[in-house]
Predict the 3D structure of the following.
Amino acid sequence: MGTFLNTDTTRIIAKRIVLTGHPFKVHKKTATVRYLFFNPDDVHYFKPIQLHTKHGRTGHIRESLGTHGYFKAHFDGPVNQMDTVCMSLYKRVFPKFSKLWIAEPETNPNNDAMEE
């Protein structure tokens, strides 16, 4: 069914989406990441957003490479080749307002239309 917290109108409902990619080449704290984006315009658009890995490293995008969405990222520590690079994105979601439920009037139980 659901729960009701309160009627505070300043509450914001946010939905989180996590984009993931894989390190293609790794050199100490720098990694070339692929499969997170597929064109360089997206890399430039999301450049200010922080990256994180499954093993807890945080980093940021340094530069775009080529035309297929590859990019160089710099992290706060050494990155493993088998690690996964993640980017969390948030979108505001507005609640769906439901219609008021009104019971329909009952039909006559003596209706013989169904009895044949």
Observations:
- Residues 3 and 58 are 35 Å apart (CA to CA).
- DSSP finds one helix and six strands in the chain.
